[in-house]
């Protein structure tokens, strides 16, 4: 697999759109390209961030944060 | 405890600890860091979850579970492998799609999505109102990048990212050859990726 092809696959990988049969090939190429591959995959996560940031933020119920912090407090107490 | 002095800025807020500093705080089990990260990103993550599962109450419950997972899994986060937001979005998306599948709610979500689309053509493929756009320059810029894609490419990416569909499922849903779906995804993602790189200085 060329690095350009790997780049295409990496973008599909971060958005969860790689087919199972493509995954093995992708993982092989990922090992083969090593650090260069990992650096590119890290950059590709900007796609996931962008898709989330493209949405209008939604307001969570006020109780959610209180419950979350209570759970954290309990977890720390044990 | 968390350093609250104004150092490197968050991508969404000027001043205050950076996202990375907050993640490091969570790794040290500082609840204040989680509290601040929650305040900063709960709206974005809830919007993402809601976009996947289309149920307000379930989205709130899942949001709480995801932030608890962020707390529990923070030790697995490595800044060398990406930014905190990318890590959180990946985690939230995976949990939301898992939740959708577990509850076998595809049919219900489909119905709700259909109703919502008819009532309010929001989102990405059909962009938002002027008022919404004014709320976020960042959102405007990102939507502009996404908006230049042909609708078929936007649809393929939306079905993959927000619905967790495989290429084969997208092909079946849109009655399109598998090879065409793959090409649409690859071209669309490359265009967005390149567009985001150009925007990086502006964001």
**Helices and strands of chain A: which structural class?**
mainly alpha
Q: What would you report as the Rg of chain A, rounded to the nearest angstrom?
A: 19 Å
Summarize model confidence as the mean pLDDT of chain B: 82
Total count of helical runs of at least 4 residues of chain B: 10
Mean pLDDT of chain A: 92
Which regions of chain A have little confidence, pLDDT < 50, spanning 5+ residues?
Answer: none
Describe, in short, the structure shown:
The complex is a heterodimer of chains A (78) and B (203). Chain A has three helices and no strands. Chain A has 78 residues and is mainly α.
Describe the structure.
- The complex is a heterodimer of chains A (78) and B (203).
- Chain A is mostly helical and 78 residues long.
- Chain A has one domain (3-77).
- Chain A is built from three helices and no strands.
- In chain A, helix 1 (3-14) packs across helix 2 (20-53).
- The radius of gyration of chain A is 19 Å and the shape is elongated.
- Chain B has 203 residues and is an all-alpha fold.
- Chain B is 70% helix and 0% strand.
- In chain B, helix 1 (19-27) crosses helix 2 and helix 7 (137-147) packs antiparallel against helix 10.
- The longest helix of chain B has 23 residues, at 31-53.
- The radius of gyration of chain B is 18 Å and the shape is globular.
- Mean pLDDT of chain B is 82; it is low at 1-9, 119-123 and 125-135.
- The chains are: A mainly alpha (78), B mainly alpha (203).
- At the A-B interface, helix 1, helix 2 and helix 3 of A face helix 2, helix 3, helix 4, helix 7 and helix 8 of B.
What is the strand and helix layout of this fold?
The complex is a heterodimer of chains A (78) and B (203).
Chain A lengths: L2 H12 L5 H34 L8 H16 L1
Chain B lengths: L18 H9 L3 H23 L2 H18 L10 H19 L3 H14 L10 H5 L2 H11 L3 H13 L3 H8 L3 H22 L4
Keywords, separated by commas or semicolons:
heterodimer; A: 78 residues; mainly alpha; 3 helices; 79% helix; B: 203 residues
